[in-house]
Amino acid sequence: MPNFDHRETVELLKQKLSICAYSGSEDNASDFLEQYLRSKGIAAFRVGNNVCAYAKHNKKGQKTVLINSHIDTVKASESYSFDPFKPFEKDGKLYGLGSNDAGGALVSFIQTFINLYEVELPYNLLLILSSEEENSGSKGLGLALEQVDSIDMALIGEPTLMKVAIGERGLLVVDGMAHGEVGHAARNEGDNAIFHAIEDILYIQNFEFDKVSPLMGKVNKNVTVIQGGWQHNVIPDRCSFVVDIRPNEYYTNQEIVEILQRGVKSELKARSLKNECSFTPSNHTLIQCVQALGMETYISPTTSDWMRLSCPAIKIGPGNSERSHSADEFIYVQEIADGIAGYTNILMKLTTRSYA
User: Fold this and answer.
1) DSSP per-residue string spanning 165-192
2) pTM value?
3) pLDDT at 8
4) Which residue(s) pair with 242 in the sheet?
């Protein structure tokens, strides 16, 4: 295995964290990372704010393995007790916005790519540092994939405590709108849309989908927002609500919306139908590889850029998903070292005849 100095990688992460990289505004962070790769002799190139690079010895006819994590962050919470763009170390932790999600995975992939850049692998290695992951934007990984060669398998970098997600649930956000008729509350006129919404919300919450996955479990759904009315003495003619749904692999998002719509009077409209479940079969080379390395596997309850891919993949990275999007975000410095080692082990194991 190539040697590595994780301290240099930690310093890289500190510099990256000092640059604001909110989704859709990654320009400066992307510039910095592109120039960093170029300073290492790597011919990085841009697709929008996505930073891409191929390893040196790529060959025609070989399969392509993608390693990917995202540059962008969510907006900083007002609850931060320090400046989120002034990273610092304390008690073995590196603090800063995006340190855990997904800065640790990002820089660990960068260092791994540098380590393996001149290694002759039996597959082509492609690095994409993508934008607009947090806001599911149109100029993120999906845009980058349109400008590179087709890929055959991928490692997606997200905080998983270096456990291997072999699948992840989809995400379906549905806006519901109940309709009624405006009236005067004092005269008990009109048709109260709030009551219709409540009836439909209870139906949705109590409804159970028949197909339960042995891996992902049942389809999970929760009503997370409700809004109706605008004045105490007016019967409202509209009441809106939002349903957060986490599908399993047995239903498409379109099927879920259609099934729920048949049972309610409210109008249901999906914000997007693209965020489907992802799952890599147990007989795929990636799964065989991580199992041979004795790595723990699981199904992730959260989504990622994996949903943009049409090829088999796994999701793995340093850090803990429970720290993501929280105030005073941090990652353990040792987790970054473990991330580099873990990524390198997987990619080097893929060089053996059994897993190529």
Assistant:
1) EEEE---EEEEEEEE-B-EEGGGT-SB-
2) 0.87
3) 93
4) 175, 225
